UniProtKB/TrEMBL annotation:
Residue ranges crossing the lipid bilayer per the database entry: 9-31
Region (Disordered): 42-67
Name of the protein described by the UniProt record: Secretion protein HlyD
Gene Ontology cellular-component terms listed: cell envelope
Biological-process GO terms, alphabetical: copper ion export; plasma membrane copper ion transport
Sequence ranges of Basic and acidic residues compositional bias: 49-64
Entry keywords, A to Z: Membrane, Transmembrane, Transmembrane helix, Transport
Keyword set includes Cytoplasm: no
InterPro entries reported for this sequence: MFP_Cation_Efflux (IPR051909)
Species the sequence originates in: Bremerella cremea
UniProt KW Transmembrane keyword: yes
Species lineage: Bacteria, Pseudomonadati, Planctomycetota, Planctomycetia, Pirellulales
Length: 461
């Protein structure tokens, strides 16, 4: 066969066919590579953006690093009850805390109401728990004591005889001289002196039986026996500065009952004056020296009510009254007392005229007393909620624009309410930190970093 007679275009067709057959047979070897090359874009910048999903984003926020900074939405800040606090230098007084309890003032708070005379209770005015003013009627007693009846009768009889003598003397002295013998007038004068002495003695006898001057005067004026006695609330004892304003008594206990026969001196009820109470603290012998200094210098003491295991209702400006003169042999603790001014918080009057009040502080309430020990000047003082503990590290969260930066700090001292931060440049006056919500910010930051959350972080065990 003469190959020179075949046209060139036939050879081109045969070459292309042969190459196609070879490519088809070897497609399993080169086709995957070709597909990968075709799938990759030819633009280098586009390749970089596709390879790095974070490319093109700015992670270098000004003033903070993402690993130590957290950003919360407005709702997030509300959810954690965020409260800002501006850092400032202030003085801090270190205190010792001692347990205490509110008690009544011995010999001042409680007053016993006793029956002044023997008789039968015919009426009781206040009910137990009510509030009464000084001089208010409390009990009405029908007198049955024979000695009292006799003493009243003698007083009236003596008063009548004295009136007769006075009239007789007036008649005799009005007669002309020499009509009546001088010894007759003298005898009447002696009799008058004797009756005056008897009247004074009988008045004193009635006063000793329990009547007052007004009641005795009424017996002499009306010439009638006193058959009913009303027992009134007494006047307040000598007042203190906190009890200078008018205030009422509280009927603590009502012992007597209507129709009950009572003897002179028998207890009818107990009233209390709660305008001022005492806080009874218990301290150990090691604290005695410091307590004496506080009492001598009249340094202010603060106290907090202990309600459901939490400290509430802080009272400041209190002063130590005195220290007990003996130590408990079993607990080795001694008592000391702090004056506690009181105030009425609610009051109401019922339809039947009974008046009720509620005092802010009540005997039996538990408290904690904070006794000053030493004072530090120019310190950074933050609430305990503002500092988060994580092992040896302590953090606060400082506001930086719309973020909060984690700032490590050195804690010099901590009590139940405050933390003293070293003034070493970690924080400066004018910085704003999270006074509340710092612990939640710390958890958010750890979750943001992908680390495990320590459920005990931020808690002081």
């Amino acid at each position: 066969m003469n190959t020179h007679s075949i046209p060139s275009w036939v050879w081109s067709i045969l070459t292309v066919a042969a190459l196609s057959i070879v490519a088809l047979v070897t497609s399993s070897l080169w086709l995957p590579t070709v597909r990968e090359l075709v799938a990759q874009p030819s633009d280098p910048q586009h390749n970089a953006e596709t390879t790095d999903p974070h490319a093109g984003h700015d992670h270098a926020h000004a003033g903070h690093a993402e690993t130590t900074s957290v950003k919360l939405s407005a709702n997030g800040l509300k959810n954690i009850n965020y409260q800002p606090l501006t850092v400032e230098l202030s003085s801090y007084t270190r205190n010792i805390t001692v347990p205490a309890m509110i008690v009544e003032r011995p010999g001042r708070t409680q007053l016993n109401i006793s029956a002044p005379l023997t008789g039968v209770i015919t009426k009781i005015y206040p009910v137990e728990g009510a509030s009464i003013e000084s001089g208010s009627p409390m009990f009405e007693i029908r007198l049955t004591h024979e000695e009292l009846v006799t003493a009243q009768s003698d007083l009236i009889r003596t008063a009548e005889n004295l009136d007769v003598i006075n009239r007789e003397l007036a008649r005799l002295t009005g007669l002309p001289e020499g009509v009546v013998a001088g010894n007759r007038i003298l005898e009447q004068q002696y009799e008058k002196q004797r009756l005056d002495a008897s009247l004074r003695a009988e008045r004193q006898s009635l006063l000793l039986h329990g009547l007052n001057e007004k009641q005795v005067a009424n017996i002499l004026e009306n010439k009638q026996l006193l058959d009913t006695l009303t027992v009134h609330a007494p006047n307040h004892l000598e007042g203190s500065e906190s009890c200078s304003e008018a205030h009422s008594f509280h009927v603590q206990k009502m012992v007597a009952r209507v129709g009950q026969q009572v003897q002179a001196g028998e207890l009818l009820g107990v009233i209390a004056d709660h305008c001022e109470l005492y806080i009874e603290g218990r301290a150990f012998e090691d604290d005695a020296v410091r307590l004496r200094e506080v009492a001598a210098q009249q340094l202010p003491i603060s106290a907090s009510l202990l309600t459901a295991g939490k400290l509430t209702d802080e009272i400041t400006g209190l002063h130590l009254m005195y220290l007990a003169d003996h130590v408990d042999p079993q607990t080795r603790a001694f008592r000391f007392f702090v004056a506690l001014p009181n105030e009425v918080v609610t009051e109401r009057t019922t339809n039947d005229g009974q008046h009720f009040v509620e005092w802010r502080f009540k005997p039996g309430q538990r408290m904690e007393l904070h006794i000053p020990v030493e004072t530090w000047e120019d310190e950074i003082v933050l609430p305990v909620e503002a500092v988060v503990d994580e092992g040896a590290e302590k953090y606060v969260y400082q506001q930086n624009g719309d973020h909060f930066d984690q700032v490590p700090v050195n804690v010099k001292y901590r009590d139940q309410t405050n933390v003293v931060i070293a003034n070493n440049g970690a924080l400066f006056p004018g910085d704003v930190v999270a006074a509340r919500g710092a612990y939640e910010m710390h958890l958010t930051l750890k979750n943001q970093a992908g680390g495990g959350v320590d459920p005990h972080a931020g808690h002081n065990h």
